[in-house]
Amino acid sequence: MKNFRLETEVIHKGYESNAYEGSLTPPLFQSSTFTMESAEQGERRFAGEEAGYIYSRLGNPTVTVLEERIAELEGGEAGLAFSSGMAAISATIFALVRSGDHILVSEGVYGCTYGLLELLKYRFNVDYDLIAMDKEDHIRSYIRPETKVIYVETPINPTMKLVDLQLVSKIGNEVGTKVVVDNTFATPYLQQPLFFGADIVVHSATKYISGHGDVVAGLLVGSQEFVNEVRMTTQKDIGGIISPFDAWLLIRGLKTLPIRMDRHCTNAIQIANKMTTHPKIKEMIFPGDDRFSQVDIVKKQMKQAGGMISFQVEGGKETAQHFMNELKLIKIAVSLGDAETLIQHPATMTHAVVPEEKRTQMGIAPELLRLSVGLEAWEDIWADIEQALEKI
Ligand code: LCS
Question: Which of 225, 251, 297, 346 is geometrically suited to a Cys-Cys bond with 162, CB 3.0 to 4.6 A?
């Protein structure tokens, strides 16, 4: 069938209703295992000589629809779904490195990704460097013969710094190092790393892809060869698979991804405009702001600037916490990309596991706050922020 635009593929890709009694939505195959017609068929399936489902840790028809859909959206050959973003990230990295290897990492990653890098370093002898990835020479100076992965978040959680995907992919491809991009903040609707030359995309699907705050899940997109390898090794044998029901919820969430992202983005622009003029907001970091230091990268690789804003209030950590406590509509919660506007304090919440010195290197100040702008009327979101600012 011909390829459609992304807005159409999020609704139709990988599913034909006539195969399932005309059921409009993909059925939920809530089954752990699949029966075989004969012992010989079982033998052929295990030997890989015959296609067919065996056991849901190896594949499930509902999960397959999700995997085909995310692969299409990211423009990759194949997709794989996991029980969490961290399951996707850890299965990917474990498939790419062995003891003695080195990983080059963007200067800032989600707290538990940092935790995974530390675990790899101290338990499995896999070294890493967190570096600013803005200059070609600087990046190249950190590449060693043992560098097997360049791991990048863009936009970076929570500092909203960007990494030039074309630049890192060019370097990675030249030196033969896999480039892995965490595309959680942008989603494939706003940014498609594989088109810039990256090898693998990972997601916390818990966020915008779900969009409704009711699933914890992860996704991976890459070449068919790499996806097959992960499916049969670090996913199958470590076991971080998604449940069919969670896959079904993600299929539902994905259908509205484009229209939700448009609204997140326009709401964020309105809130950011208001923030820039407020005297109690010391600094605001939003890729959609004209004064954002990496506007060129936004223009080059993102369709819109996204729905995440980081900012600092005048005063230190206590003032930031006081501000959060005064909010009424906006919820204090980690996670992001939900219909509800959420706020969190990275230094004591999502990035509390990162030692202070490394947090400073990443740009996470004690008064930094991260706002996930939701789908409510922006005027109501701003009114809540404004009344809380008045009280600090
Ligand atoms: N990558 C990014 C960029 C994330 O923000 C997160 C979670 C993960 C990976 C891990 O995904 P998970 O296993 O939770 O599905 N970020 C969170 C955050 O900022 N607040 O709560 C979780």
Answer: 297
3-state secondary structure 331-383: EECCCCCCCCCEEECCCCCCCCCCCHHHHHHHCCCCCEEEEECCCCCHHHHHH
Confidence of residue 3 (pLDDT cuts 50, 70, 90): confident
Task: Starting at the earlier edge strand, list the strands of the sheet with 308-313.
Answer: 281-285, 308-313, 368-372, 342-344, 331-332
Q: Residue 335: CB within 6 Å of ligand 1?
A: yes
Q: What φ, ψ does residue 178 adopt, rounded to 5°?
A: -70, 135
Return mean pLDDT, the chain: 97
pLDDT of residue 1: 54
Evaluate if residue 371 carries a pLDDT over 80.
Answer: yes
Tens of pLDDT, residue by residue over 43-97, are 999 999 999 999 999 999 999 999 999 999 999 999 999 999 999 999 999 999 9
Reduce the DSSP state of residue 282 to 3 states and report it: strand
Quick check: CB of 350 below 6 Å from ligand 1?
yes
* Catalytic residue numbers, as ranges: 57, 110, 182, 207
Given the CA of residue 109, which atom of ligand 1 is nearest to it? 3
CATH of 6-255, one of 3.40.640.10, 3.40.50.1820, 3.40.47.10, 3.40.309.10: 3.40.640.10
